[in-house]
Amino acid sequence: MKLDAPVTGGPCWTELGTTDLEAARRFYTRLFGWRPETDPRQEAGGYTIAHLGDAAVAALAPLYQPSQPVAWNVSFTVTDADAVARAVTEAGGTVLFGPSDVFDAGRFAVAADPGGAVFQMWQAGTFPGAGLFNAPGSLGWVELYTRDPEHAVAFYTRVFGWTVNASERYPQWGVDGADFGGMVTMDDKFPPEVPPHWLPYFAVADVDATTAVVQAHGDVLMVPTSVPDGPRIAVLRDPQGAMFGVYRAGDEG
């Protein structure tokens, strides 16, 4: 990812909604070396921020609604969550929650694009988002899986003003040309029950070693693969069923 700090329109945070918060803490601490800290306030609902050193890098949280799937969610920085929520609706998407204030940390909303991929919007207050990107254990790339790439491009460029590196093989999203993610078209290889979604990728020092750890506790959905002219990557699933990707730190463009 060419971004190394939260910027308007770019990914700023990723958080896991899980059925077993304690198991998730143990799993990701072992995998990435995170130091998780749970907000002690009752109204925070167990929200847990993971750190590397002093930098906040991701969050773990229990499921807050029965319909909420176990999944990693990606947040994008906005300057006005209410205005962007209106833009989502005008562009054919759906606002699922909010916008709502999160203490004094910021203003938050959850939405789905016209294809059904869920994403989050974050208007920073005292908390801008992740304090570290592209380093082992931190967010380094985000990927949209969609069955309707043309409408996805139209939607996200309208809502966020993203630039698109329109490669036929792998279109990439950017902010003013600084790429932060890509888009995968879901073809017949994807079972129909797999919904469109956003997938975060975490940087790691060794993709193969990380995958070996997951094999003992979770699932490997895509074995370590060296992308031509790109990074070495793998797609994994934690013991509660949340999917995420990893790539070798230093391979990002």
From TrEMBL:
What protein name does the entry list?
A: VOC family protein
Upper classification of the source organism reads:
Bacteria, Bacillati, Actinomycetota, Actinomycetes, Kitasatosporales
Q: Which domain of life is it from?
A: Bacteria
Q: Which Pfam families match?
A: Glyoxalase (PF00903)
Q: Which Gene3D superfamilies match?
A: 2,3-Dihydroxybiphenyl 1,2-Dioxygenase, domain 1 (3.10.180.10)
Checking PROSITE patterns in the record gives: VOC
Record's signal peptide: none
Matching entries from SUPFAM superfamilies are given as: Glyoxalase/Bleomycin resistance protein/Dihydroxybiphenyl dioxygenase
The segment(s) forming the VOC domain are 10-124, 138-249
